[in-house]
Write a structure and sequence with these properties.
The chain has 91 residues and is of the alpha+beta class. 40% of the residues lie in helices and 31% in strands. It has 3 helices and 4 strands.
């Protein structure tokens, strides 16, 4: 999708796109290529997978984009990501 839109993301970026809805869609772009496309029914499983991706792939910039399909789910994902980062990573 990003390649088709020709957005100005650096090829060294890791871009994670989340489509919140009944089934939560996840697309992961790394070095300008889509490396994963999957669906989740559980917000917790999605967030744990995202944290695993962020921890295992090196990139100049790591970008997480959350769509506005279902704002309640989007806010839950954002809140859980923030909680997991605060409790799992040292700053």
């Amino acid at each position: 999708m990003l390649q088709k839109l020709n957005l100005d993301y650096d090829e060294n970026d890791l871009v994670i796109e989340i489509d919140p809805g009944h089934q939560i869609g996840l697309s992961v772009f790394y070095f300008g290529k889509e490396i994963e496309s999957s669906f989740y029914l559980s917000i917790e499983e999605l967030v744990l997978h995202i944290i695993d991706i962020l921890g295992s792939l090196r990139a100049k910039q790591k970008i997480i984009k959350i769509g506005n399909g279902n704002m309640d789910i989007a806010k839950k994902i954002e809140k859980l990501l923030n909680l997991k980062f605060c409790s799992s990573f040292e700053l």
